[in-house]
């Protein structure tokens, strides 16, 4: 439990630092002379460079533990932010965001693997994942408004320098506090049924490989999130940093409200994921078609749906990954989310003149809802219990 508390502290500081940049980056890029299409590529490039980092993290975390990669991600990302404070051209910002995306690609798989490895009991793992969601949301409640406030007082350069030193300090604390090896990587995990037609390597380990179709879920969700983080600051204008920060804080407050409803964890992941996808899709449709409804209300409801969705996704991937595969499973999940976070803002930036980006997000989420949960035929049938069974 002590390790979990330290990890929650590090994640709070890291997520605070990252979310504080959301209302800042678009106005900063505009001040450097960037247009909407370039801003879309800049935000997408950050996610695109996640991919090689995620591919490396999956194998390396399972082999070497999480500590060194948590320290690496936090410290290097902090140094990049110090350089970002002195960016003079849009291309400077693009390159620095790409480098930051690679460095931080190690953070999420390492943190999620360490949390999941603290116990082999599914119920306890679910509590750790819910705690991670609460910490993430608490940080994102206050950080957007705080970031906008710091910019108003210290300017862009002072803000990025402050956030950079905070990440470096967090990395130093992680070096002295996180255990060198994940404590329960060797503990037995949930064993899923093995089919005769599975690849011999998967059958030999007793753990079937997770169907790639499951990763469509984080891809489409991340696409919609990328659209939101692209369009919301742009729609508020260069002078709307404070209002953007407040709206993003309302989004996180909505997520916090449902994350605290622990009884929802008794429902199966499939039910929670389907309901959350529908709720998020309706919120994006409302943002696109009913602009008379206050955006703050819609974003609060959107956040409430997110608070149901993300713990359910974490429970699903834990049950599918099993012991010894958590790093790879969360790495592939991060890859899917990185691809979505790249495709979302890029598509929104290119199509913004023709269709509301919020409608694009609505279509993406409805597509995810129609594709999931998976069918019960073929190889996908062996994963149905992890999708449909009640949570432990």
UniProtKB/TrEMBL annotation:
Stored SUPFAM superfamilies: MFS general substrate transporter
InterPro entries: MFS, MFS_dom, MFS_Efflux_Transporters, MFS_trans_sf
Gene3D superfamilies xrefs: MFS general substrate transporter like domains
Domain Major facilitator superfamily (MFS) profile: residue ranges: 3-379
Name under which the protein is recorded: MFS family permease
Chief place where the protein resides: membrane
UniProt cross-references to PANTHER family, sorted A to Z: CHLORAMPHENICOL EFFLUX PUMP RV0191 (PTHR43124:SF3), PURINE EFFLUX PUMP PBUE (PTHR43124)
Pfam families reported in the protein's UniProt record: MFS_1
Membrane topology, from the record: Multi-pass membrane protein
Keywords associated with the record: Cell membrane, Membrane, Transmembrane, Transmembrane helix, Transport
Compartment(s): Cell membrane
Regions crossing the membrane: 69-87, 93-116, 128-152, 158-178, 214-234, 246-264, 271-290, 296-318, 330-348, 354-372
PROSITE patterns linked: MFS (PS50850)
């Amino acid at each position: 439990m002590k390790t979990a508390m330290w990890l929650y502290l590090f994640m709070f500081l890291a997520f605070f630092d990252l979310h504080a940049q959301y209302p800042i980056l678009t106005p900063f890029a505009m001040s450097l002379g960037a247009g909407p299409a370039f801003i879309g590529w800049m935000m997408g490039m950050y996610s695109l460079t996640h991919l090689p980092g995620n591919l490396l993290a999956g194998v390396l975390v399972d082999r070497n533990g999480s500590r060194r990669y948590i320290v690496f991600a936090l410290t290097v990302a902090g140094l990049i932010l110090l350089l970002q404070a002195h960016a003079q051209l849009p291309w400077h910002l693009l390159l620095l965001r790409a480098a930051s995306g690679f460095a931080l690609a190690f953070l999420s798989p390492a943190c999620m693997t360490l949390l999941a490895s603290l116990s082999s009991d599914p119920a306890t793992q679910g509590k750790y994942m819910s705690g991670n969601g609460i910490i993430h949301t608490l940080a994102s409640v206050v950080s957007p408004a705080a970031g906008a406030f710091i910019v108003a007082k210290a300017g862009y350069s002072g803000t990025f320098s402050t956030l950079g030193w905070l990440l470096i300090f967090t990395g130093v604390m992680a070096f002295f506090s996180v255990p060198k090896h994940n404590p329960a990587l060797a503990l037995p995990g949930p064993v899923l049924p093995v089919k005769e037609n599975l690849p011999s390597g998967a059958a030999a380990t007793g753990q079937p490989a997770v169907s790639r179709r499951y990763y469509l879920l984080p891809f489409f969700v991340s696409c919609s999130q990328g659209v939101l983080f692209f369009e919301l600051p742009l729609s508020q204008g260069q002078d709307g940093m404070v209002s953007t920060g407040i709206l993003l804080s309302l989004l996180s407050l909505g997520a916090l409200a449902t994350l605290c409803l622990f009884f929802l964890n008794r429902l199966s992941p499939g039910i929670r994921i389907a309901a959350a996808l529908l709720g998020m899709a309706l919120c994006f449709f409302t943002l696109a078609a009913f602009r008379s409804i206050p955006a703050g209300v819609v974003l609060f409801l959107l956040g409430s749906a997110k608070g149901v969705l993300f713990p359910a996704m974490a429970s699903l991937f834990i049950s599918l990954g099993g012991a010894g595969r958590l790093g790879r499973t969360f790495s592939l999940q991060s890859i899917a989310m990185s691809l979505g976070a790249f495709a979302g803002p890029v598509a929104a930036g290119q199509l913004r003149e023709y269709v509301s980006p919020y409608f694009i997000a609505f279509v993406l989420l409805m597509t995810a809802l129609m594709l999931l949960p998976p069918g019960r035929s073929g190889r996908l049938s062996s994963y149905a219990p992890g999708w449909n069974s009640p949570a432990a």
